């Protein structure tokens, strides 16, 4: 209770200041959002871009909680026009570190006397962010990195969470209901995520899970956590130095193959996304370095995500549909990942996707960047609002950041081409098609069962009319066998020629259904 009173103390003054700073930016955002939705074309609007940059500067001025909120908003195409997304994607969490004497009490409260615990402790921070900062030290002869929360970070974040909730409650009824629900959804996700990010026990657990998953599979180094020194407020890991992954000049000086580096980075993260139970969701340049031998070092495991099997399947299906230009599959996949409501007008959605694909100026999908293809999906999502699942938001952030790094290393890098190659080599497309066949069969069986269920009703109806019996030659068994043969043929042909596979499936289903009806 004491902590709650401290958070609320003086909050009104802060609330008034934040409200009067945010209000003009929010009004501009509402107008820009409305104009972006009403425009039939997809042209870039430089006025909206300017307003997006102003909003980013305002979030930086308002402090750490707003910086983190801005990073989450950068992956919300259902809320922000693409010009705002572009500005918020550049929002980096890098601020000057607090003086050492301000964080020393927290360090010693969690670790004990620094001189007694460490062989050496460098009091100059090697990096600083809005929530924490990192120091270099020596522990039992080994170089370690010591990450500690800023002394006032938890108070500031909790105060601003309360403040944002109060402002949103004030806005309710004054803005459109969908926008209110969407912002409320973002704040709920933000509240959970930022509290987790300040908990270094959670980050330690994330890093261990990722290290365990990729061990022996990827050329990625995950620094080891020292459990005996780590706690909720302090995290101690191996210090592993390297060259920042976007420092292309220095990487070339070290004779590192940067094209191969881009490929390895991309493949590693996509495998993590599609194969594992957890993926690193914040691969910005400050979180990735490269050793002199070309191995990738991964830092900062505070922001992670995961995909359930259903979302992973539809995401694979979306990629497959985008690279093949299959509009129906794209729409099905967007609905499947819950980026669109099933109640949305399918015909209008298809038209929107077709316009986006036509805007690629004749370029083959596999020669496009992931950003181009995602932008098509983003435009559709923005036009037909639906609240995006958190896992999908984090995936979109991860893929966008990842592509930016790969293109900085290799301007000719083709994200989608590499992705499709991965799908083929690792059997992911085979898994996708097998799942599609399985789902088709399940739907067919349900349809047959529904048809069979209604037959007794039809029979009673016919009997009640006392129609004369008609002698029929029973051909149901041969037809059922022939229908089964067509379905099996469809399974065999599907992987080679999908359209013929679909045709055989359809014919097999019709013969099977007809045989059931004849038997009755």
UniProtKB/TrEMBL annotation:
The chain crosses the membrane at residues 500-517. It holds the Pfam family ABC1. It comes from the Archaea. InterPro entries: ABC1_dom, Kinase-like_dom_sf, Prot_kinase_dom, UbiB_kinase. GO terms for molecular function: ATP binding; protein kinase activity. Coiled coil: none annotated. Residues 120-458 form the Protein kinase domain. Keywords: Kinase, Membrane, Transferase, Transmembrane, Transmembrane helix. CDD domains: ABC1_ADCK3-like (cd05121). Belongs to the protein kinase superfamily. ADCK protein kinase family. This is Predicted unusual protein kinase.
């Amino acid at each position: 209770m004491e902590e709650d009173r401290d958070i609320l103390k003086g909050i009104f003054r802060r609330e008034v200041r934040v409200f009067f700073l945010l209000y003009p930016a929010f009004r501009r955002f509402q107008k820009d959002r409305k104009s972006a939705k009403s425009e039939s074309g997809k042209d870039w609007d430089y006025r909206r871009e300017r307003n997006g940059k102003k909003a980013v500067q305002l979030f930086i001025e308002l402090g750490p909680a707003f910086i983190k909120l801005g990073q989450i908003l950068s992956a919300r195409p259902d809320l922000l026009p693409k010009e705002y997304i572009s500005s918020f994607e550049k929002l980096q969490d890098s601020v000057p570190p607090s003086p050492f004497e301000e964080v020393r009490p927290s360090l010693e409260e969690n670790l004990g006397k620094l001189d007694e615990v460490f062989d050496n402790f460098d009091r100059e921070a090697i990096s600083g962010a809005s929530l924490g900062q990192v120091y270099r030290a020596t522990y039992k002869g080994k170089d370690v990195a010591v990450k500690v929360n800023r002394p006032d970070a938890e108070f500031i974040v909790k105060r601003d969470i309360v403040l944002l909730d109060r402002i949103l409650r004030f806005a309710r009824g004054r803005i459109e209901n969908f926008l209110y629900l969407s912002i409320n959804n973002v704040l709920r996700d933000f509240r959970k995520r930022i509290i987790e990010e300040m908990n270094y026990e959670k980050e330690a657990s994330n890093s261990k899970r990722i290290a365990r998953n990729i061990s022996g599979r990827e050329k990625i180094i995950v620094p080891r956590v020292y459990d005996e020194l780590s706690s909720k407020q302090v995290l101690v890991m191996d210090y592993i130095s390297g060259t920042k992954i976007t420092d292309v000049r220095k990487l070339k000086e070290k004779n590192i193959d940067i094209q191969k580096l881009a490929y390895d980075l991309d493949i590693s993260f996509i495998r993590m996304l599609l194969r594992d139970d957890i993926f690193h969701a914040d691969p910005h340049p400050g979180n990735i370095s490269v050793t002199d031998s070309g191995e990738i070092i991964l830092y900062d495991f505070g922001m992670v995500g995961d995909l359930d099997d259903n979302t992973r399947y539809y995401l694979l299906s979306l990629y497959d549909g985008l690279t093949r230009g299959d509009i129906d599959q794209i729409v099905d996949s967007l609905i499947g990942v819950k980026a669109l409501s099933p109640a949305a007008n399918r015909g209008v959605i298809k038209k929107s996707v077709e316009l986006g694909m036509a805007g690629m100026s004749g370029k083959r999908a596999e020669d496009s960047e992931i950003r181009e293809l995602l932008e098509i999906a983003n435009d559709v999502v923005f036009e037909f609002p639906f609240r995006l699942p958190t896992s999908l938001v984090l995936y979109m952030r991860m893929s966008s950041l990842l592509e930016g790094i790969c293109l900085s290393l290799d301007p000719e890098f083709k994200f989608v081409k590499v992705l499709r190659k991965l799908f083929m080599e690792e059997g992911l497309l085979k898994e996708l098609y097998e799942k599609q066949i399985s789902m088709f069969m399940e739907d067919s069986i349900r349809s047959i069962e529904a048809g069979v269920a209604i037959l007794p009703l039809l029979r009673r109806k016919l009997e009640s009319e006392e129609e004369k019996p008609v002698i029929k030659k029973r051909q149901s068994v041969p037809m059922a066998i022939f229908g089964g043969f067509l379905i099996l043929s469809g399974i065999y042909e599907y992987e080679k020629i999908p359209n013929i596979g679909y045709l055989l499936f359809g014919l097999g289903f019709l013969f099977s259904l007809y045989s059931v009806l004849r038997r009755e």
